[in-house]
Each structure stands twice: as structure tokens, then as C-alpha cells.
């Protein structure tokens, strides 16, 4: 597996004629995955709003007037009910997200309890809690956490246009702590924030250069939320999104490449092209943290029409 992709090489991948690009991505995909399987995941916001960060896309930042309030962490009963519903809808991974810069130790103990209980249901577990301090990743691993999500969001060059309250290096350090603790990594980014194609290529290059590269790679299309600095961002060309999926698949052959935020407004034909380009994972549920997402029943109907089946 390569870990030395250059930005220019990935730009060339993006620029290939679309039929050639999809054929190449599908060929890589079939070499490492079953072509008719899609992994189902559910993402639950266990602590919503009040985040001190200034991520320009995020309605959970306390800096922006988006109508998202600062809520307390959910109860164990609420989290487990959601996990049971996720499993009933065919999800195999349950992801828990909290709007923090990073977790406090007292909060980490509560989340470790969530992880232990969700694991008993037979689900894989994932958490996205912000930046981790030394020792925190080990505590999550000891509780049985399978994956930790911490996205790079965009290229190093464009990052400062989107976030000023944490550095790119901060994100990489959290990923290093997760790896050192022996957990698997879920890491991707967001496209459609006004970045260039070269920025998108540079994001893929950053992800693919991690050794090992992330086991899960969520690709998010920006959901523009009123009140955030990106509320008026122009929508990304859907075929550019498909090209991003293909580039991720070619450069990270064994990863789960996940269609994440933005599917609510994504035509089914575009989603179908994404699966052809190597996507093999989706989020189920009515919303992702605070933004809309296709309902599980609608997804099942689409998969049936495409001849896809849940990964187990």
C-alpha cells in the first residue's frame, strides 16, 4: 500500500475522464471489498451545542446564532435506546459525538460506560469527542472503543480559512494518540467549503500519507446552516463530489469510504455514482448530529433498487 501520494498525482486522478475514473476506482474497490455490500452506521449526538471552537461550518459553535442550544450529555438510557434502534435498522457501527474542544476526565468516564454498554449489544463503537489529552485514548481503548473519529476537515493550506481555534498539528496529534493507544482511526473531511480542487487533492494526500491510513474515511458535503460563516457557500458540483469519493478509494484501497453529511440533499443518482466510485459505507438515521440525513427506510429502498446489501 502506498503512503507517498503527491498532491499533483491526486490532481491527475481527479482530472481523468469520469468513465475512466469510476472504472479505476471500482476496480480498486473490487480488489479489496465486496462490490454489493454497504456498511450501515449511526451517529448520535450525545452532547449537543456550546462548543467553544470557531469551525466555520459548524452550527454547534457557541460563537454563531444558529438556534442550536447548549445541552447536557444524554442519559445512558437514551444512548442505549438509540443504539438498539440503530441495530434494528441494520447498522453495525454506533458512533457517539460530543460538541467539545476535548473531553474532561469526568465526562470521559461516563462515555466509557456508554461504550461498554453499546458493545454488549454486538455493535462496533466509535466516538468523536474533540482533541484528546495524553492518557485519554488509552482510557477509551480500555472501555472497548473500536474507532475514534477526528477529521482533518480540509487541506493544510485552506484550513486557516475555516478554523482558527485549533491548529492542523493539533488534529494530527490526536490521531497519533489514538494510534498509539491501539485504536482504529476514522478520519476524513468536508468538501464544498469554498476550497479548490487542489485543496481537495491535498486533503486526500494528507489522509493517504498517514501510515497506516484511516480504516474509515468519511467524506462530507457541506451542509450550509444559517448563522454560520459558510451559510451562503455555493454548492459543490455533484460530479466533483463523486470524483472525491473515487480519489479516496484509489488512494486508500482498504478503507471504508463513507458517504456522510450532505446526503439529505444528494439525488439518488449521485449516490449511486458514489457507490460505483467506491463508497461502501453510509450513516443511517434522521440526522447527523444536528443536520438532516435520509431515513433508514429510504436508504433500504435505495439499496434494494441498486442491488446492494448491508455489510455484516
Describe the structure.
By secondary structure, the chain is α/β, with parallel strands linked by helices. Helix content is 40%, strand content 16%. The chain contains eleven helices and twelve strands. The chain has helices at residues 7-15, 18-32, 76-88, 105-120, 136-143, 156-159, 168-180, 197-209, 238-251, 268-276, 296-306, and strands at 37-47, 93-98, 124-128, 147-149, 184-186, 189-191, 216-221, 256-259, 281-284, 287-288, 291-292, 309-310. The strands form two sheets. Strands 1, 2, 3, 4, 5, 6, 7, 8, 9 and 12 form a ten-stranded parallel beta sheet that branches. Strands 10-11 form a two-stranded antiparallel ribbon. Helix 2 packs parallel to helix 9 (238-251), helix 3 packs parallel to helix 4 and helix 8 packs parallel to helix 9 (238-251). It is globular and about 50 Å long. The relative contact order is 0.18.
Main attributes of the structure:
312 residues, alpha/beta, ten-stranded parallel β-sheet, 12 strands
Task: Please tell me what the overall shape is.
Answer: globular
CA radius of gyration: 18 Å
- Terminal Cα span: 25 Å
Describe the oligomeric state of these chains in a short phrase.
Answer: single chain
| pLDDT averaged over residues | 92
Strand content: 15-25%
Number of helices: 11
Largest sheet: 10 strands, parallel
Structural class: alpha/beta
Helix fraction?
40-55%
* Unreliably modeled segments: 287-293
Number of strands: 12
H and E string: HHEHEHEHEHHEEHEHEHEEEHE
Amino acid at each position: 500500500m502506498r503512503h507517498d501520494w503527491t498532491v499533483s498525482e491526486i490532481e491527475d486522478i481527479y482530472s481523468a475522464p469520469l468513465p475512466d475514473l469510476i472504472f479505476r476506482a471500482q476496480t480498486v474497490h473490487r480488489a479489496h471489498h465486496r462490490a454489493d455490500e454497504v456498511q450501515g452506521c449511526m451517529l448520535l449526538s450525545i452532547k449537543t451545542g456550546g462548543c467553544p471552537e470557531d469551525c466555520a461550518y459548524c452550527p454547534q459553535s457557541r460563537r454563531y446564532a444558529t438556534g442550536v442550544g447548549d445541552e447536557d450529555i444524554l442519559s445512558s438510557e437514551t444512548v442505549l435506546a438509540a443504539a438498539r434502534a440503530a441495530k434494528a435498522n441494520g447498522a453495525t457501527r454506533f458512533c457517539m459525538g460530543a460538541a467539545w474542544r476535548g473531553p474532561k476526565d469526568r465526562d470521559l468516564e461516563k462515555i466509557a460506560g456508554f461504550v461498554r454498554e453499546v458493545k454488549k449489544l454486538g455493535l462496533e463503537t466509535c466516538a468523536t469527542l474533540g482533541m484528546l489529552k495524553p492518557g485519554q485514548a488509552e482510557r477509551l481503548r480500555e472501555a472497548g472503543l473500536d474507532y475514534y473519529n477526528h477529521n482533518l476537515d480540509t487541506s493544510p493550506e485552506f484550513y486557516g480559512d475555516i478554523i482558527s481555534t485549533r491548529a492542523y498539528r493539533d488534529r494530527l496529534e490526536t490521531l497519533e494518540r489514538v494510534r498509539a493507544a491501539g485504536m482504529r482511526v476514522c478520519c476524513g473531511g468536508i468538501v464544498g467549503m469554498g476550497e479548490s480542487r487542489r485543496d481537495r487533492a491535498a486533503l486526500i494526500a494528507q489522509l493517504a500519507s498517514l501510515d497506516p491510513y484511516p480504516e474509515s474515511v468519511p467524506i462530507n458535503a457541506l451542509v450550509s446552516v444559517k448563522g454560520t460563516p459558510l451559510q451562503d457557500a455555493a454548492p459543490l458540483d455533484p460530479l466533483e463530489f463523486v470524483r472525491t469519493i473515487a480519489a479516496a478509494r484509489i488512494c486508500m484501497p482498504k478503507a471504508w469510504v463513507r458517504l456522510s453529511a450532505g446526503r439529505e440533499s444528494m439525488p439518488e443518482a449521485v449516490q449511486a455514482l458514489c457507490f460505483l466510485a467506491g463508497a461502501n459505507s453510509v450513516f443511517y438515521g434522521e440526522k447527523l448530529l444536528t443536520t438532516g440525513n435520509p431515513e433508514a427506510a429510504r436508504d433500504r429502498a435505495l439499496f434494494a433498487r441498486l442491488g446492494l446489501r448491508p455489510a455484516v
